[in-house]
């Protein structure tokens, strides 16, 4: 498929974000189940539910554009997922695996925030209306919030004992 216009690039990137959000519903569910830190587990479960709503918002954007909601593979997300699964097979220590989940979550949120920033920038240049902008902004805001929660969790008092245990004296 050839991409020759900014609109075509926007739709391509939108399809990639649609892929990401759909894939993350399942991934967040798995991490919510597997994380042993209760706060982390609940955070992943809450964000999974938000992500389901984000998928619906992206479908609204497709509708506003008169495009069919389709996915486009995102190799960077697939690589992160493959890495997470590899760590799950290699790591037996629950606390260490929680650190993998924390890092994977933060990396994924950064990728998503950047993707939404790019989509918003293109939507502005294409002079698309609020039917496109508002759902993208809502999703972006939720991704920023999820990242802040993970960042806060990384320094939370309940994590200090885990960090202390995992860090050599």
UniProtKB/TrEMBL annotation:
Keyword annotations: Coiled coil
Residues in coiled coil: 48-97
Superkingdom assignment: Archaea
InterPro entries: DUF892_YciF-like (IPR010287), Ferritin-like (IPR012347), Ferritin-like_SF (IPR009078), YciF (IPR047114)
Listed name of the protein: DUF892 family protein
């Amino acid at each position: 498929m050839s991409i020759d216009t900014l609109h075509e690039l926007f739709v391509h990137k939108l399809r990639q974000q649609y892929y990401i959000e759909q894939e993350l519903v399942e991934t967040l569910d798995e991490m919510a189940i597997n994380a042993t830190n209760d706060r982390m587990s609940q955070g992943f479960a809450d964000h999974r539910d938000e992500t389901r709503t984000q998928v619906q918002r992206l479908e609204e954007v497709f509708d506003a554009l008169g495009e069919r909601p389709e996915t486009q593979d995102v190799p960077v997300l697939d690589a992160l997922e493959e890495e997470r699964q590899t760590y799950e097979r290699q790591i037996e220590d629950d606390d260490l695996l929680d650190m993998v989940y924390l890092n994977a979550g933060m990396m994924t949120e950064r990728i998503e925030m950047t993707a939404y920033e790019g989509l918003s920038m293109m939507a502005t240049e294409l002079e698309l209306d609020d039917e496109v902008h508002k759902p993208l902004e809502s999703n972006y805001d939720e991704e920023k919030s999820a990242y802040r929660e993970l960042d806060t969790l990384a320094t939370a008092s309940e994590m200090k004992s885990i960090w202390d245990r995992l860090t050599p004296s």
